[in-house]
Write a structure and sequence with these properties.
Keywords: Hydrolase. The chain is an alpha+beta fold and 142 residues long. It contains two helices and seven strands, in the order ββββαβββα.
Length: 142
């Protein structure tokens, strides 16, 4: 082991890219002061399977059930609001009922929008989510 190594110590989150009718679901957290938009999802609990945790978080925040698919991005970053390291796993996901009405938990979600990808750059996003969305949509089959 290299004596200069520092092991990761921080929170782990899982987020979902949910697309409906060509638009991606973005949300805002009412606790976030800068009115930044983000992908839905949340923290992984101890001893929780990440896919199960993501489905749980989406149900808690939005009141809908999802199918969790492949991982599309993973990234380590420093979360300034909490002053700690974070690791995010971003999955592609689909609504089980594509016409389901969203029921927002107003403690965690102040607003949601399905945004066409061409308009995503008009929204202030956390950098890790902006990079993920650019990469994901650039690599979709035409």
């Amino acid at each position: 082991m290299n004596s200069n190594e520092v092991h990761f110590d921080g929170k782990i989150a899982q987020k979902a890219i949910i697309v409906r009718d060509g638009a991606i679901l973005l949300m805002r957290d009412p606790r976030e002061k800068d009115k930044i938009w983000e992908l839905p999802g949340g923290r992984l609990n101890v001893e929780e399977d990440p896919r199960v945790g993501l489905a749980r978080e989406i149900f808690e925040e939005l009141g809908v059930h999802i199918n969790v698919h492949e991982v599309v991005h993973m990234e380590q970053f420093f979360q300034h609001s909490e002053g700690r390291n974070a690791f995010v796993i971003i999955y592609k996901a689909t609504l089980i009922d594509s016409e389901a009405e969203l029921h927002l938990d107003d403690r965690e979600v102040s607003e949601v929008r399905f945004v066409p990808f061409a308009e995503v750059t008009d929204y202030k996003l956390f950098p890790e989510y902006e990079r993920t969305l650019r990469h994901h949509f650039a690599n979709l089959p035409k």
